[in-house]
Specification:
Blueprint lengths: L4 E4 L9 E9 L3 H9 L4 H4 L4 E10 L2 E8 L4 E9 L4 E8 L6 E10 L2 E9 L8 H31 L10 E5 L8 E5 L2 E8 L2 E6 L18 E3 L6 E3 L18 E5 L2 E5 L1
Antiparallel strand pairs: 1-2, 2-8, 3-4, 4-5, 5-6, 6-7, 7-8, 9-16, 10-11, 11-12, 13-14, 15-16
């Protein structure tokens, strides 16, 4: 299988702790890339195979610092510092396994929505004979992380590109009552996409995209009547639209559901 990235072993002139370089082209804009780098919150949700938890210690336009728990239960303190003038960010391991390791990410603009990433890994204490092996392990891990990140960034860009006109007061959609195995069902009402589902014996309708950063709300409703965004873990009550996980964001206006004679009408 051909790789979508290039791994370059550290050269003889590299710093003693340089274990290699990962290169990859990604179909996203610089704005989405910066947004993703600063988004510490998504790590344990989108990247559940790598991280199981995160506690932010500080954050801002400069970057973030957080306590992170790996999928294997190891705790680390990481810091990411963003330098927009150089189009790069540096991630440092301040505490935990591989303390002192640094990952330098440089971004080069190919086109408006196409970037080249050049990522250098610096890991102290690695014997020269083991550098390539350690560097390749980092590259494989980053391949998975960027596969997941590119999906999130691309989906967010797709939704941001959609022009949303104001919903007319008389907008309505009629459909045959779906079977249980077809739920949740995406439906269009007034040019916008919603999810039709059932909870506690009643029909419920909620946005198909999370109001936080447009993550897809296509999962199952839990026993408390909540839907969870897979990108950042925000939970919303599908009946009230309120965020139940501590954020101030909430669902906007959603269609009402009227049922009769085996058919449903969704309207405002």
């Amino acid at each position: 299988m051909s790789l979508r990235y290039e791994f370059v072993p550290a050269g003889a002139e590299s710093r003693l702790d340089h274990v290699g370089t990962y290169k990859r082209r990604v179909p996203v804009s610089l704005e989405r890339m910066y947004e993703n780098a600063l988004d510490w919150e998504h790590l344990p949700h989108l990247h559940g195979s790598s991280f199981s938890g995160i506690e932010c210690l500080d954050s801002g336009a400069w970057g973030w610092r957080a306590r992170v728990t790996s999928a294997g239960g190891e705790a680390s303190t990481l810091e990411l510092c963003l330098d927009r003038s150089c189009r790069r960010w540096i991630t440092r391991n301040l505490e935990g396994p591989n303390t002192g390791a640094e990952i330098w990410t440089h971004v080069f603009i190919v086109e408006e929505r196409q970037l080249d990433l050049v990522i250098d890994y610096f890991v102290p204490g690695v014997p020269e004979a083991a550098r390539a092996k350690v560097g390749e392990a980092y590259a494989r891990a980053y391949e998975t992380l960027y596969d997941e990140d590119v999906w999130m960034m691309s989906e967010r860009q797709r939704l941001l590109d959609q022009r949303l006109d104001s919903i007319r007061a008389d907008a309505a959609t009629e459909l045959a009552e779906p079977d249980a195995e077809d739920l949740p069902l995406p439906v269009q009402v007034g040019g916008r996409e919603y999810m039709l589902n059932r909870f506690a014996g009643e029909w419920v309708v909620y946005p198909a995209a999370c109001p936080h950063q447009l993550g897809p709300l296509r999962g199952d409703i839990n026993s408390n009547g909540e839907i969870t965004c897979p990108w950042h873990g925000y939970r919303f009550d599908v009946r009230s639209g309120d965020c139940t996980s501590g954020s101030h964001c909430r669902f906007g206006t959603v269609p009402r559901v009227s049922a009769g004679a085996g058919r449903l009408t969704l309207s405002f």
